[in-house]
Structures are given as structure tokens and as C-alpha cells.
UniProtKB/TrEMBL annotation:
Gene3D superfamilies xref list: SGNH hydrolase
Keywords associated with the record: Hydrolase
Pfam families in alphabetical order: Lipase_GDSL_2
One Gene Ontology term of the molecular function aspect: hydrolase activity, acting on ester bonds
Keyword Hydrolase: yes
Domain SGNH hydrolase-type esterase: 6-189
Alphabetical list of PANTHER family matching this protein: SGNH HYDROLASE-TYPE ESTERASE DOMAIN-CONTAINING PROTEIN, THIOESTERASE 1/PROTEASE 1/LYSOPHOSPHOLIPASE L1
Highest taxon, organism lineage: Bacteria
Protein's UniProt name: SGNH/GDSL hydrolase family protein
Amino acid sequence: MTTILCYGDSLTWGSVPNGGRYPKHLRWPSQLNERLGKHHQVINLGLPGRTTLWNDPFLEGRNGLAYLQAALETFGPVDILIIMLGTNDLKRHFNVGAYEAAKGIEKLIEKSKMPNTHGFPSPILLIIAPPNILSPNGAVAESFDGAVEKSQHFHQYYQDVAVHNKCLFLNSAGILQPSEIDGVHLDAQANEQLAEAVFSLLKGKV
């Protein structure tokens, strides 16, 4: 049984644009599991609001770096770790850009490779650059004010970090875009597109 841990934010958790959560079968990690088959366990550890390593003053427990080691131990040994974080780093109150988000991703990569007391081997890593943010609408509009242009640099910085650290890499902006309803979250079609792209990348490696 191959264990694949999807460590992300609301895009992994399955947020419906402007409110709610998709049924399990519509979330991309579930669709990935369906494509890979019963000998694989794909765990959806998405959490709305999660950042790479920033403490959000308005949402408790969203620092991705602070929880990663616990997650790897809880579900370990993890064979493949998929990280798709950074969208929330671009919220206005953090005042950082895609470069800083990529540096946060690098810290997560380093954390995943640290020795653990259980002797679990380090997982294979897949880094996914988040999709470009469209014009934010509705409830997310104020939080993501100024984030559209910043998000267009995810691909460049994330690819550099992934290559430097010998990780698999996927640029989600090359295959999908968020829903125009709120400009940030994925519609059902985008979830399916992401699952298919990840499956194509992993099918020769698991």
C-alpha cells in the first residue's frame, strides 16, 4: 500500500468558491486515489487558510511548517508527499509575495527530510505551484487585494526551489485556473484537471 499525503490549503481541502465544501468524490485527492487504485492510499490533509510558515493572527493553527512533522508521523511512513501551499501567503496582511512563499516551501522540503525517531524514510516530494489568482470576488476580495500579480510568479520561484531540492514539480497554472466566481478556489472541473495531471506525473513512480 503506497501512502500519498496531500498537504495543502482550501484548494486541497475542497472549498467551493464563495462557501461550502465539495463532496468527497469531487475533491482532487479523492479523484487521484480513484485513478491510482486500491493499492494506494491518498490522504487529504488540506486545511483552509493554511500558509507555508506564517502565523495568521486571524486563524489559529494555520502555520504549515509547524504541523508538517506531526502529519508525517501521524500518517507515516509516507511514500509521497504532495505540497500545494502559498496562496494564503499572498493575503494582504502578510505583505509577502511568491518569492517568500517559495522560500517557505523550501523550509517545508527541509522539514520533510529531517530524521525522525521512527526510522521512516524521507518521502518522494511533489511540489505544486498554486494556480494564478484571478480577480478576487466576494468574501475573499479584501484578503487577496493585490495578490493577482504576485501569484503570477509562483511558477518561476517554485520550479527553482523544486529543481534545486530534486523534487517533482507541477505548475498548476499551466493546466487550470480558479473559478471566476471568487477568483481563488477551484471549481469541479479544475479539481478533475488537477487530479489527472498529478496522476500522469506519478503513475510511473508509484
